[in-house]
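Subject line: Sequence and fold of a protein, written as C-alpha cells
Enclosed: The protein record, placed directly beneath this head.
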Amino acid sequence: MSVKMDGGREVQLDSVKHPHLDHGYAVTSHSSQGQTADRVLINVDTELGAKDLLNNRMAYVAVSRGAYDAQLFTDNREKLGAALGHDVSHTSAHAPEVKQDQAAKVSEQAVAPKQEPGGGAKGSR
C-alpha cells in the first residue's frame, strides 16, 4: 500500500505486516445524512471555533450512521455533554397556538368517545 502525505512524501506500507490498516473516507455529519456505514468514527472538538455546529442533531446524525459500531473521540470529555446537548430546534412560524381551554377540550374528546344516537359509542363494535 502506498500512502501519499499532504506534504507530498510517499510512504510504503506492507499490508501483510499491517493487516489492521484499511482505507476510509472522511465526511461531515451533514453530508452523511441518509448514508450508512458499518462503522463510524466521530471526532468532536469541543474547542471548535464554530460551536453552533456541535449540537444534539449533529450528534444524532453522526452516531446513527453506524450500522454496527460508532466510536466518539473528543478533546474534552467534561465539555462533551454540554457541547452535544445543545438544542437547535426552532418552532415553526406556522405552528398554531393552542390555548389552555382548547387543549382541555381536545383532551376530553380523546378520552370520552362520542355517543351515537341509540346509546352506542361511535367506533365501537
